[in-house]
ubiquitinyl hydrolase 1 (Homo sapiens), 88 residues
Amino acid sequence: MESIFHEKQEGSLCAQHCLNNLLQGEYFSPVELSSIAHQLDEEERMRMAEGGVTSEDYRTFLQQPSGNMDDSGFFSIQVISNALKVWG
């Protein structure tokens, strides 16, 4: 190996830096990870709707912020896991 890739930490984008350092390149951006988080949010919303869109649980779920990302740069372990799926 010629050199070790190290993406310097910027802000609170720990998941992005972790993935890129693990994969040894600039493979993921906040935009790409946000897209994965939104996909997970939609899948979760659809699962919750299966219990009835008029249920208290569903209405409560819709009022909560995403558990997969936030404005600080946090991404959940599910986002990281889904990002790595493209690598098998």
The longest helix spans residues 30-49.
